[in-house]
Amino acid sequence: MRDTYDEVLLPIPRQGSADDLVTIVRSFIADRDLNPGDRIGAEREIAQTLGVSRWAIRRALEHLEHQEEILRTHGRSGGVFVAPKKLFRSTPIVGLPRYLQAQGVETGTTVLGTHAGPPDDESAKQLALDADAWIFHIERLRLADGLPLVLERANFPCDLFPGLLEQSLGGSLYDILETRYDVDRGVAIETIAATAASREVAGLLQVSVGAPLISITRTTALDSGRPFEYSHELYRSDRTAVTIRSDGESAHTTIEP
User: What DSSP string runs through 50-114?
Assistant: First the structure.
């Protein structure tokens, strides 16, 4: 991944039109043979290299982002990137690494925190737990080609999965549940909605505060019918498309105001 700056060989007008600058930025990317996901640089660096104002370069980058040619991220490791290809998350539900690997994407995980304790009211309701039951809570940031893709918060009943937090949690949790705990998955119900990034979430996903996200809330049951997972995932909408497959009978869509 390249992020160094050689001297620009293009003749760059300091007072060109917005369209001129968009073309120049496209040439700037092409001349460096950058690939999807490669870092172009920071906004300030690009402006200095091209000899234009940050205001002018910002307008050009906004246009290119709207055209889905680049991706801008925020935070300490943020910057301007050649737009990665849009990733697809589909049904039936499998672990995220399997989705991404099938699309030729390098996966990664940062475990942000884990704990065991009493569930909140919604988790207790969705998992059909008694008042004195405890859950495992796992919060992770999932990466695709090194960039944040989804913030995942998952809850599991402690009595079903003793020692779960002692396992390696960097891969698919479903693989752990199926191989170590012999889980046979039954029905999963997902609610998909649009939401906006809070300040905390924006920092983790490297997007602007208020940026659109895809929110997916899921309750999954064992083959016996007992709920074993209640989770909430926040996907970057600029990098994700969701495909829902129906067999003609079992799919059900609920629209809530």
Answer: HT--HHHHHHHHHHHHHTTSEEEE-STT-EEEEPPPPEEEESSP--HHHHHHHTT--EEEEEEEE
